[in-house]
Amino acid sequence: MFWQWQPVRSAQVVSVPHIVTLSGASTCGSTLSSSLFRGPSAHRHVAEESGYELTSSMAPAEKYPLVDDIDFLVIMGGPMAADDHHVSPWLVAEKRFVAEVIAAGKLVLGVCLGAQIVAEVWVG
């Protein structure tokens, strides 16, 4: 069961909880289809039926949403390690983004590579 969100009502405006997922799989060839099958797109219907807005982004593109627009950040996996900057230079920008989200007090969940990134950002 998804975390239960209570929409914020302010002057007839309802805030829909926004979940953002990041994946590092776009540069992984055959890993991409596997990651997408198990990743956020496989669960999009559950999120939407539960009243969540779900946005998926491939981290290598380095196009991140505004931190203020995020309620919950889910960082997915990829075949690289969190310190593989020489193979995946976009990891530096992703870590900066994750650090901003954490500093803003947003909810963050890391899965596989995402957990490595969260740990590295938190510990330094």
Describe the 3D structure:
Helix 3 (91-103) crosses helix 4. It contains four helices and six strands. It starts with 8 loop residues before the first strand and ends with a helix. Strand 5, helix 3 and strand 6 (107-110) form a beta-alpha-beta unit. Residues 5-14 and 26-37 have low confidence and may be disordered. 29% of the residues are buried. The chain is of the alpha/beta class. It has a single domain, classed as Rossmann fold, CATH 3.40.50. Strands 4-3-5-6 form a four-stranded parallel sheet. A two-stranded antiparallel sheet has the order 1-2.
Percent range of helical residues: 25-40%
Low-confidence stretches: 5-14, 26-37
- Report how far apart the termini are: 32 Å
Number of strands: 6
Strand order of the largest sheet: 4-3-5-6
- How many domains comprise the coordinates? 1
SSE layout and pairing:
Blueprint: E1 9-10, E2 13-14, E3 18-23, H1 31-38, H2 44-49, E4 53-58, E5 72-75, H3 91-103, E6 107-110, H4 113-123
Parallel strand pairs: 3-4, 3-5, 5-6
Antiparallel strand pairs: 1-2
